[in-house]
Amino acid sequence: MPEAYYAVANSYMVEMERNKVSALRKMKHYFNLGKEAEDNMLPCYLPYGESDVRRGVENIISVAAKVEEGGSLLEFGSVFTKPANEKGILEEKQYLANPLRKQMVIRHRQGIADFAKLAKRLDHIEITQTIPPKLIQTTPRRMGHVKPISLKEMNPTTDHIYEDRLIDLTLIEDPSFGFASIHLIAEDENGDVTRLYIYNVEQNKEAEEKLGHGSRIVLLNPYMRIGSQDYTNGIRVDEPRCVVYLDEDVGKLCRFCGTGEESVPFQCCALCKKASYCSKECQTLDWKVMKHKLICLV
Ligand SMILES: [Zn+2]
Ligand SMILES: [Zn+2]
Q1: Which ligand is located closest to the Cα atom of residue 268?
Q2: Distance from Cα 252 to the centre of ligand 1, integer Å
Q3: 276 alpha carbon to ligand 2 midpoint, in Å?
């Protein structure tokens, strides 16, 4: 019985986006009913086991209470020990301030949020419609001839397959599933960013891990594709053998600047507990500029 109340309380999480105050009130109401039910349980059922749902709801209520008291979500639970940089992170790594990067990341996160909303309303969704590529990608003819290429060297206005070329990319967002292809955002060694669409690879747990934030991949014969409807450019992969997964354990990376966790202990987002940050500055920028909120509770 308590578990049922906690589950109801948890379900108001979806409503948080639309009406935070009323959702929170209802969440608290059902949480308290759950606690009451726990107190009234027959002694033979006690002690009541630890419930993940209960813990999750409790966490949200406590964070929200602190925010209501005037604190900011970012302050809560964040104890960064990294000494403040003299220069801000955007000055130190100027490519992070690229407006195109910001636009792509926000759009990607919005896509994940929209899809999650849709999935909650419908039992089953599968969007398999896609417009076939103009060009057919194949694997390189002879590997010995393959040379590296960067995003700057690729023309973003022309549909073109760069034959006998390879591009080394780091994924800077988690994959977005649910469409005909896996949607990704990738960065090359210069810090330039591109959208990336991988077709013909199953959208499962394995793909989620191999294509997660921070993973490195090499694409052979990359295809710069101009979107047939929105005219935006992105790299399209149709031939799965053109993707080489560099299977290295990337460990914890800062969600905003991509720094790896070394001597500085990272802090994670108080709400989702998934996104980690190297500094408060990065956490603030990810929340405010890159709209982490969109994917925080999906
Ligand atoms: Zn950082
Ligand atoms: Zn979060």
Answers
A1: 2
A2: 11
A3: 9
Q: Which ligand is nearest to the CA of 92?
A: 1
CATH of the domain at 166: 2.40.50.550
Q: Compute, in angstroms, the gap from residue 238 CA to the centroid of ligand 1.
A: 33
Instruction: Indicate whether 206 belongs to any domain.
Output: yes
Q: How far, in Å, from the CA of 112 to the mean position of ligand 1?
A: 22
In tens digits, the chain (298 residues) has pLDDT values of: 788 888 888 887 777 666 777 788 888 888 888 888 888 877 776 666 667 788 778 877 777 776 666 555 555 545 565 555 567 899 999 999 999 999 999 999 999 999 888 888 877 666 667 778 888 888 888 888 899 999 999 999 999 999 999 999 999 999 999 888 999 999 999 999 999 999 999 999 999 999 999 999 999 999 999 876 777 899 999 999 999 999 777 788 999 999 988 767 888 898 888 899 998 899 999 999 999 999 998 7
Distance 209 CA to ligand 1 centre (A): 21
User: For residue 81, which of 253, 243, 269, 261 has the smallest C-alpha distance?
Assistant: 261
Written as one letter, the residue type at 98 is N
Q: Is 224 a member of any domain?
A: yes
**For residues 252 and 237, what is the distance between their CA atoms, to the nearest angstrom?**
27
Residues 233 and 146 in one domain: yes
Looking at all shown ligands, the one closest to residue 272's CA atom is 2
Q: Which residues contact 25 (CB under 8 A, 6 or more apart)?
A: none
Q: Which residues surround ligand 1, an ion (CB under 5 A)?
A: 254, 256-257, 259, 278, 282
Residue 219 in any domain: the answer is yes
The CB density around residue 227, as the number of other CB atoms within 10 Å, is 14
Note whether 116 and 196 are within 8 A (CB).
Answer: no
